[in-house]
Amino acid sequence: MAKLSVNVNKIATIRNARGGDVPNVVQVAKDCERFGAEGITIHPRPDERHITTKDVYDLDKVVTTEYNIEGYPDERFMRLVEETRPTQATLVPDGPDVLTSNAGWDTVKYKDMLTEICSQLAEWGVRSAIFVDTNPSNINGAKEVGVDRIELYTGPYADHYEEDKDAAIKDYISAAKLAHDLGLGINAGHDLSLLNLAFFKQSIPNLAEVSIGHALIADALYLGLETTIKKYLELLK
Ligand SMILES: CC(=O)[C@@H](O)[C@H](O)COP(=O)(O)O
Ligand SMILES: NCC(=O)COP(=O)(O)O
Fold first, then answer.
1. Catalytic residue at 33?
2. Which of 10, 32, 55, 120 is most buried, judged by most C-beta within 10 A?
3. What residue spans define the domains of the chain?
4. CATH classification for the domain delimited by 3-236, as one of 3.40.50.1460, 3.20.20.140, 3.20.20.70, 3.40.50.2300
5. Quick count: other Cβ atoms within 10 Å of Cβ 112?
C-alpha cells in the first residue's frame, strides 16, 4: 500500500492571509495524522509565503508519522534539514519565483551537486528523494547521484488525465519500471486528486508514497478533513 503524506502548505497559506494563527498548522497536521495520514509534507519556500521557518521546527516537534521536507537545496534548506532531521528530504529544482513546482531535475546536468547533497543527507540519516519527470535519462541520472527515491512529478499526468488517461500514464509506467529495476524507491506528487489518484496507483505497482496538498485541502472544504483523508486512503489500498 502506498503511503499518503498530506502536504499542509495550503493550511499555512490560509493562515498567512490574516497573519494570525488560524488555522493552526500544527493542529491540522496532528489531526491529519489522527485521521490516518501516514506522513506530513511541507515545502518551506524562501519567501515563506506559506510554510515559515518556525513552522518547520514546530511541526518537527509533533509529527509522529513520516516528516517530509521538500525544497531547493540551498543553504537555508539544508540548515532546516540538518537541524530537524526529517524522515525524508525531497529535493525540488524550483527557483525562488515559481508559482508552484513545475519541473523535475535534470539529474545529468546537476549530477555533482545532487551527489554531494544526497551524500550529506545520508550522513544525517535522512532519506533522500529527488523530484523528476519521466525522462529515462533523468531516472538513470537519479541512480547515479545515490538518491534513495525519486518523486515522479505528476503535473503532466494530472493535466492530461481527463483527455486520455492511458496516454497520460504511459511514460510514468515505464519510468517507474526503470526506477524499480535500478533499485530506487518511487514517490509521486503534484496535482494528484480524488479524480486521478486511483488510476495512478493501480498503474504504478511499486508506488511507495504520494504527497498531496492542493486538491486534498480543497476537497476538505466540502467533505471535511477526516472524510477527505479517508477517501484518499481508500484509493491507495
Ligand atoms: C514539489 C511539489 O510537487 C509541490 O507540489 C509542492 O510541494 C507544492 O508547492 P506549493 O504548495 O508551493 O504549490
Ligand atoms: N510533492 C507534491 C506535494 O507535496 C503536493 O503537491 P500538490 O498536491 O499540492 O500539487
1. no
2. 32
3. 3-236
4. 3.20.20.70
5. 9
Q: What is the Cα–Cα distance from 137 to 36, expressed in whole angstroms?
A: 36
Q: What is the DSSP letter of 128?
A: E
- Residue 1 has a CB neighbour count (10 Å cut-off) of 10
Binding residues for 1-deoxy-D-xylulose 5-phosphate: 45, 50, 100
Measuring from atom 10 of ligand 1, which residue has the nearest CA?
100
ipTM reported for the complex, 2 dp: 0.97
Taking the C-alpha atoms of residue 75 and residue 86, their distance in angstroms, rounded to an integer, is: 16
Q: Residue 69 forms beta bridges with which residues?
A: 42, 89
Does pTM surpass 0.95?
yes
Which helix (H) or strand (E) segment holds residue 127: the answer is strand 127-132
Sorted by sequence, the CB contacts under 8 Å of residue 236 that are 6+ apart come out as: 1, 2, 3, 4, 197, 201, 210
Tens digits of per-residue pLDDT, 8-58? 999 999 999 999 999 999 999 999 999 999 999 999 999 999 999 999 999
Longest CA–CA span in the chain (Å) reads 48
The answer to whether 32 and 5 have CB atoms below 8 angstroms apart is no
Ligand 1 centroid to residue 228 C-alpha, Å: 19
